[in-house]
Design brief:
28% of the residues lie in helices and 15% in strands. By secondary structure, it is of the alpha/beta class. α6 links the parallel β3 and β4. α19 packs parallel to α20. It comes from Chordeiles acutipennis (Lesser nighthawk).
Length: 711
Amino acid sequence: LLFPHQEIVSGESEEESNGVNLMEFSDEILLHILSYVPCTDLVLNVRRTCRKLATLCLDKSLTHTVLLQKDYKVNKDKVKQLMRDIGKEIYQLNMAGCYWLPSSTIDHVTRCKNLVKLNLSGCHVTSLRLSKMLSTLQHLRSLAIDVNPGFDASQLSSECKATLSRVSELKQTLYTPSYGVVPCCTSLEKLLLYFEILDRSREGFMLSGQLMVGESNVPHYQNLRVFYARLAPGYVNQEVVRLYLAVLSDRTPENLHAFLISAPGSFAETGATKNLLDSMARNVRLDALQLPKAWINGSGLLQHLKFNNPFYFSFSRCTLSGGHLIQRVINGGKDLKSLTSLNLSGCIHCLAPESLFRKAEDDIDSSILESLVVSCCNLRHLNLSAAHHHSSESIGNHLCQLLSRLKHLLSLALPVCSITDVTANVEKPPTASNLVPQTFGRKVRIGIQTYPRNLADQANQKIESSVFWALMGSLRFLETLEIIGSSFSSAMPRNEPAIRNSLPPCVRAQSVGDSEVAAISQLTYLQSLTLAQLPNILTGSGLVNVGLQCQHLRTLSLANLGMMGKVVYMSALMDMLKHCKCLRDLRLEQPYFCAGAQFFQALSHCSSLQRLCIVSRSGTLQSDAVMSFMANCLEVIMCHMFMGESLTVCKNLQQSIVRSFQADRPALNVVIFPLLHEDLTEVIRDVPMRHLDEITLFKSRVAEEPPNLWW
């Protein structure tokens, strides 16, 4: 393409030139092209190139919605100029996760007089600044904010409260016990609450959710249609959410159609919550449901709840049996064509007829899965991870064969043991890798099987005849895939010391390795891939296939692959990375990982990389190599390394990176720290929530929330 002011070679006419002038395209095509350019670049740079682009860059289709949430190059001055130039044209503004911008940046949002939707999650906003800003936004209907320690609702002006009274959608992330602005929002239809309150203050004092009892105002839920609450670990979060729910238990909104509570660990049911659920069973028909496992286990709740056109169900970590799932939720195969997202993560008995006398490792009942597939034929997101879903030897009834009927799937999470080809396992004697103990003890030398590195040779080894190969071939439009060991747990859990020991993989998973990874390379449109605890990775050759074939891959997470005492796939990983031109996020969790010059040289080929996280017990790093990598990869704004190096080495490297690159990369976030250090949890609490939730902490993300929960 020839851009404006680009000259054609002397002696050659424009018609004879092989180039095409960009300005010859129609306005519609140009607007479509420009829609992929960050708004800050459009307004501050591109529109200054020529008159035509100056007009197009200010078209309403480009200025109506401004997304700054992952524009890591934006700074205070750019935001100020952007608001000055097009503030009155902006109707939707998303600044979520812009943690690097000073709080004074929010003052410039007041220029956006016509704002209808505003997302400031992860931004530094005080009570006074929030009051001043909202006082000018009379058309606002959707708001997302954080409530931090020191928030004082009494500082909100009457004009601010008037704006809040018209807000119908509120997303509120709580870092301190408080109602926040909820009592001011008297017209709420959608309420999303994220509880991130720590049990202890930085000074070590125990916190209490009862601090908010003295507040005189209470939430107004009479118009509520969607209630969502996600709790981080900790008893304070549970105390606070109970106070939010207390109002709901008194009078359940008649129009409530989505009720979702995501709570880790044990969250006991109380008399108030039982009254709430009983009231819901009598008065509402739901389209989306998620409840803590203790509220479902052993109760007949699901039998009494009524559903309209459900689009999302999550029974994560519940002991719900497949029999109850079919009878009480799927209703014998009726009315579930509307379901697009289903989370059965950790639901260990969901594919068995009953759970009373069943062991978690017993074979699944394929008829239950078949009923699920037939009834929910429009599923786009399915999570079956964190459970042992073992298929029987019956021909045609393997889990992978049944799932291949779900042609609309966009994201899928499976346990490693569920993709094993049962007949192949029965006929094949144990390989050397099966006999290697999955421990951190003395390393055992074994003969390494050589796998060819191209897809054609892989096919010659007949791996395409496996059920998993066939599944990958049938899900051509899959964008997100997670294959996670049923007993895998990350070495870095939330709010706790690092885990020092890991459980061995499931026996059924022992044969899953390079050939299964190679099968994933059939997913041409794959954007996100997570592989954890695949025991039979011998060379990692399948990773090279993925790198070559999956050219849209943006997120890659690898954890505990192959032998635990040695990184056997390092050579293949480096070859893979040379082909990952679109990769933005890379997370590696592997004991004894050596982050040296060769690794970072290969990683430097990932020209789009923005975030890197390495978690490695007894792992080592080469400081000079890290610095060289940061200098070569200009897009990297997050570097998290939790290794086996000393505190001194980690601190010196972290300081060097910040000192060298912070000025040119305003969003730069660097954490380099010993994995097993006792102060790790204190360091983790300072990591921006965007990075912590999206990459640093390992978790299954498929069907974690309803689709399009927030914009």
